[in-house]
Design a protein that fits this description.
CATH superfamily: NE0471-like N-terminal domain
Shape: globular
Structural class: mainly beta
Radius of gyration: 13 Å
CATH topology: NE0471 N-terminal domain-like
Number of helices: 2
Strand order of the largest sheet: 3-4-5-9
Helix content: 10-25%
C-alpha cells in the first residue's frame, strides 16, 4: 500500500484491502485484522461530529459494527468506512498496549 495525495492506494500487485475480523472497543475504537494479517487500532472519535457518522456517538450503535464483504458497516446508522481509510488513519495494534475488550451493546 502507498499513500498518494492523502489517498491510500493498493500497489498493482497487491490485493484490495479487506478487513477479515473486527471488534468494537470502548471509546469508539475498532480493532481490525486485515487479510494481510496486519492488526490495526482505529479511533473513530474524530468522525463522530460529521454528518451520518454522528449517529455512532451512541456506543450501543457503534458496537453493532459488522463486516460486509470486508468493509466495516453500521447497518443501524446506514454508514460504512473504507478499509483503506481506516488503515491510513489507524496505528499498528501491536504497537499499543490495549485489552481486547468489547464495547457493551
Amino acid at each position: 500500500m502507498r499513500v498518494v495525495d492523502g489517498m491510500a492506494k493498493a500497489d498493482s500487485k497487491a490485493m484490495p484491502m479487506r478487513v477479515v475480523e473486527l471488534n468494537a472497543l470502548s471509546g469508539h475504537r475498532l480493532w481490525l485484522r486485515y487479510a494481510s494479517g496486519e492488526e490495526r487500532l482505529f479511533d473513530a472519535t474524530p468522525l463522530l461530529t460529521s454528518g451520518a457518522f454522528s449517529r455512532l456517538t451512541d456506543e450501543r450503535v457503534f458496537a453493532r459494527v459488522a463486516l460486509d464483504h470486508g468493509v466495516p458497516t453500521w447497518p443501524d446508522a446506514d454508514v460504512d468506512l473504507a478499509p483503506e481509510y481506516i488503515y491510513q488513519e489507524s496505528v499498528e495494534a501491536s504497537s499499543h498496549s490495549f485489552i481486547h475488550e468489547s464495547a457493551q451493546p
